[in-house]
Amino acid sequence: MSTQPIVVLVAEDNPTDVMIMREALASAKVRLEMHVVTDGVYALEFLRRMGAHAQAPRPNLILLDLNMPRKNGHEVLAEIKADESLRRIPVVMLTTSQAEEDLARAYANHVNCYIRKPVDFERFAEVVRSIEDFWFAVVTLPQE
């Protein structure tokens, strides 16, 4: 088993959702290194190691909010999956959107998983823990 931590990029502009994710993942059964960006432009800068993110590690998994400022999750996802150097990183889209068009568009752009965020704090924390259980315990993630 690798001694390297699993690097997770969280692209989320809601501080409460970030706090819930941090708390839910704090007791992870694996070593995690969580990085947070607050909009789609910063997400792409982090992934492309630009500007302030020049030394950013390559994430093993991206948790991507759909509704973010500057570039939304659909735009970020499309750019990730169009980029040869990024497309293999699994992307989990997290959203409050109930629109079937958002779901269809995400899968058309090759999202790996689409999850609707529960509005209830405890249920959302459970969802995040289930992401941990599946993506970090069951799935073998690509290394850089």
Number of domains: 1
Shape: globular
Mean pLDDT: 92
- Structural class by helix and strand composition: alpha/beta
What strand order characterises the main sheet? Answer: 2-1-3-4-5
Count of DSSP-assigned helices: 5
Secondary-structure blueprint:
Layout: E1 6-11, H1 15-26, E2 32-37, H2 40-48, E3 61-65, H3 73-82, E4 91-95, H4 100-108, E5 113-116, H5 121-138
Parallel strand pairs: 1-2, 1-3, 3-4, 4-5
Your description of this structure?
The chain is an alpha/beta fold and 144 residues long. The protein has a single domain (9-134), classed as Response regulator (Rossmann fold, 3-Layer(aba) Sandwich). It is 40% helix and 18% strand. The protein contains five helices and five strands, in the order E-H-E-H-E-H-E-H-E-H. It has helices spanning 15-26, 40-48, 73-82, 100-108, 121-138, and strands at residues 6-11, 32-37, 61-65, 91-95, 113-116. It has a five-stranded parallel sheet with strand order 2-1-3-4-5, with helices on both faces. Helix 3 links the parallel strand 3 (61-65) and strand 4. It is globular. The protein starts with 5 loop residues before the first strand and ends in a 6-residue tail after the last helix. The model has no long low-confidence stretch (mean pLDDT 92).
